[in-house]
Backbone:
């Protein structure tokens, strides 16, 4: 997973972002001002920067001009269209407005890391290996046949590991937003995954909500 620098002067928001990103396997660095961020970047060379705009010394629009070679996602309370356009035109990979959903943040982070080749595409769950890049699954080094929906379910659980996913979220991930089938379809496919890949100890049922991949 990636090494992520969180540049956010609100301590509570900074800590929450660290907590959620660590849960899903990322390594986190923190900075509470623009000057501190530039120092951390020079020393640690992070894979990705989550950057607030309204910082106490140097604002995010100025900081991005001083950085090269590291993808940046703005995470800010500034929601005006001209700010969004300025941020994206200035070189940011994405622009997230507060308040935000942490699962969406994690998803957007993973997209950018994949785009830059900073995310390890192999995941190991006991005797099972999942190749997220090539859409293949192996058990004891033997390739298994999994359906598209089974793989997409597995992918959603892995990229949100240790986070509870609702049945509707998993349905959207594997079948698409326009799918009109019953949420019980998710239950059937989860049971198949557990049996086929021997993942009973990893995929936990969250009563009346959905599922969580615990690692």
Residues:
């Amino acid at each position: 997973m990636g090494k992520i620098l969180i540049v956010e002067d609100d301590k509570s928001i900074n800590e929450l972002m660290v907590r959620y990103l660590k849960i899903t396997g990322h390594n986190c660095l923190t900075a509470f001002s623009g000057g501190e961020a530039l120092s951390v970047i020079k020393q640690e060379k992070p894979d990705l920067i989550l950057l607030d705009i309204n910082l106490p010394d140097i604002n995010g629009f100025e900081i991005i001009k001083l950085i090269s070679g590291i993808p940046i996602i703005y995470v800010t309370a500034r929601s005006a269209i001209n700010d969004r356009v300025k941020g994206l035109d200035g070189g940011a990979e994405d622009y997230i407005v507060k308040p935000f959903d942490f699962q969406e943040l994690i998803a957007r982070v993973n997209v950018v890391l994949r785009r830059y080749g900073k995310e390890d595409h192999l995941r190991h769950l006991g005797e099972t290996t999942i190749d997220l890049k090539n859409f293949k699954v192996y058990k004891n080094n033997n390739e298994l046949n999994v359906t598209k929906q089974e793989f997409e379910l597995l992918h959603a659980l892995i990229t949100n590991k240790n986070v509870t996913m609702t049945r509707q979220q998993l349905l959207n991930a594997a079948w698409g937003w326009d799918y009109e089938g019953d949420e019980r379809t998710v239950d059937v496919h989860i049971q198949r995954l557990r049996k086929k890949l021997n993942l009973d100890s990893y995929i936990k049922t969250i009563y009346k909500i959905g599922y969580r991949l615990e690692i």
